[in-house]
Amino acid sequence: MSEVPGSNKEVYNKIDREFTREAIELECLSPNEVETAITAQVETREAQGRCPRIWEILVLEEKITAEQSERILDIILKPSVEASNDVKISMVGRTLIDLGSTNQKVITSALELQAQERRNGTWRQLGQILLEGNHIDEDQLREALSILEEKRDQRKTDEGLQENAGQKGS
User: Fold this and answer.
1) Crossing angle for the helix pair 14-25 and 31-48, nearest 10 degrees?
2) Model pTM score
3) Same domain, 72 and 105
4) Domain tally, the chain
5) 2 in helix, strand or coil?
6) Are residues 158 and 105 in the same domain?
7) What residues pair up with 2 in beta bridges, in sequence order?
8) Pick from 79, 82, 104, 137: most CB atoms within 10 A?
9) What are phi and psi of 11, to 5 degrees?
10) What pLDDT, in 10s, does the model give residues 52-100?
């Protein structure tokens, strides 16, 4: 795995590799497009101090669509995040993984703990479990929640535009 000197976040990590492998297998990308995206990922990390995920680069460079990105993420995350009792990664968990704040194993363990606690009558949110277990800090949780809020707002805006378009067409 490549690391940018002085950084604590990996460039082209395991999930990025799984993503590009699946994208090539689905014939959404060529190996050359992957190499170009990895180069852009490294350059962005060096220039901005932030390591974008490979799918962000690919969508921004219009190599794949956002829908293709979501489909591939669903494919690669589904088998690895399901536990024996069908625990699945929540939106907060997935966002924290996407940000590089934690990993699938930690999220899955926290979700299993959450399910166990709920069976026993305790109701803690995933973020609270991760904070109290020192798996993430408050800034990381705030960033993930902010991203989710932006997505919800965008969805509401998109739904409103669709409704308006439907009324105009009537």
Assistant:
1) 150
2) 0.45
3) no
4) 2
5) strand
6) yes
7) 11
8) 104
9) -100, 135
10) 788 888 988 889 987 888 788 878 776 443 333 334 456 888 899 989 9
